[in-house]
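Hi there, hope your week has been kind to you so far. For a while now I've been wondering how a particular protein folds. I'm sending you its amino acid sequence along with the backbone structure tokens. Could you read through the record and tell me how the tokens relate to the sequence? Take your time with it, there's no hurry, and the full record follows here.
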Amino acid sequence: MVYGATTFREVAEIMAAATDPNTFDEWNVRLMRMPATVISSTLQDTLGWRDAQIVRGDAVDVVRQLKEDSDIPLRSQASLLLNRALMEAGLIDRLQITVFPVISGHTGTSPIFRGAEDFDLQLLEHRVLDGRTVELVYRPTPRGT
């Protein structure tokens, strides 16, 4: 997993607090056991994440090197600014979007693609997870290429 500092802080705090009833579901337990690379100029420690490392430097350069060195595919969860930069640099091979059937107009905190470049999305895979939640996997291509 590759994280930006803000998302990593949020995830680590949620997991450490263990107040969310979903904290110990299968996905979260697996997530906490995964090696994590955190690209940050501000974090000083891994906030209790057992197999995390903090890397300093330009996110695009760091991820480009990780992709070259890694034998397994990299994943990133949330980290919107990080993922936007990676997508604009052509480093995102697959974009997975999970659609939840809710609208958070009053409680949402930030539109995830505000100010982003335009991308065409080619649908690669889709599945219905629980009869109402749909997982869509896309390949992003900058519009006009």
Summary: The helical segments are 5-17, 26-33, 59-69, 80-88. The longest strand covers residues 119-128. The chain has two domains: 1-90, 94-145. The chain has four helices and six strands.
